[in-house]
Write a structure and sequence with these properties.
The chain has about 350 residues and is α/β, with parallel strands linked by helices. The protein is built from twelve helices and ten strands. It starts with 8 loop residues before the first strand and ends with a helix. Bound molecules: D-xylulose and manganese (II) ion. Manganese (II) ion binds next to loops.
Amino acid sequence: MAGKAVFRFSFGPWNIHEGADVFGPPVRKSVATAHKIALVKKLGFEGVQFHDDDAVSSVDVSHDQIVREAKETRKLLDSEGLVAEFVAPRLWEDPRTIDGGYTANDAKAREYALERSRKAIDIANIIGTRNIVLWPAREGVYVNESKDHRLASERFVAAVNSMLEYDGNIRVLGEMKPNEPMDHAYLPTTGHFLALSYKTADPARVGVLIETAHSLLAGLDPAIEMAYALFHGKLWSVHLNDQNGLKFDEDRAFGAANLKRAFDQVFVLYENDFGANGEFVGLDVKALRTQKDEVATRHLTNSKKIFLDLLEVVKRVDRKKVEELRASRDYEELEYYIISSIMGRV
Ligand code: XUL
Ligand code: MN
């Protein structure tokens, strides 16, 4: 293995944003989606990730209008020479999903979530991707007794099955996160979703997107989680970023908090030929609220640069030396060798 990795980069329109947080309003001018898409190539990226309502202005309009607007988005992508990587139904903002979508107690909420997911699939087909990403933001609980947890798993499988059945070509990628906004998310880790994938009607079309910060919030190592999904042949996208401890989902620039951890992720992706089947290296990073308008894309370009710089280090690592140090169980020296490599000492 190794040597077949192809790294193409993507991000979503939400990664260029106004800087609002839960404690304060926007601090930067808003940038129109069309302008953000025009920036993608300029910033050195090839793929665009979409929420359903990034690709069209709203999903609560007629089907004809959704189709018309999705076609416009497709035209824009084609004219920029860009590729749509995925569509994610943004189920967590609508009042109808206050208490969840696929796993809600309320049948109307469940029906809304399924209907909106089908619209996301229609949009995906028009803009040219077969990937549907599910970040199940509000599937979970604040109060343990508020839901039947076993039934929630059944409902989750049923929801995925209904998407697989609606379209025989699409793939469903779970992007799992243990908490925030929920206290306890259902299927809080990649491993949970992988287990669920084998209960679906077509496991070959169910995989994962792993986000660095989400793994860290679960107390897990992102590189090891990625390797596990790769072992299943189910790592179909990543959201690289960084995270400084167990706080909120920080979406810091890749490598900004822990360079060694970033190296480990690049190493695993490179060693396992990530990208050889067209997968993108997605970045899910947020500009710091302190950034001024004109430099509020640095978090994207810097993350990509850090990835590529680490890739050079990964390629330079002397595999024979690593094998020898593994064989002699001198892990302290192995660690020192890797850290010296990252520091440019070898
Ligand atoms: C939330 C998150 C989302 C998904 C896309 O933490 O990462 O932005 O990546 O829906
Ligand atoms: Mn993400």
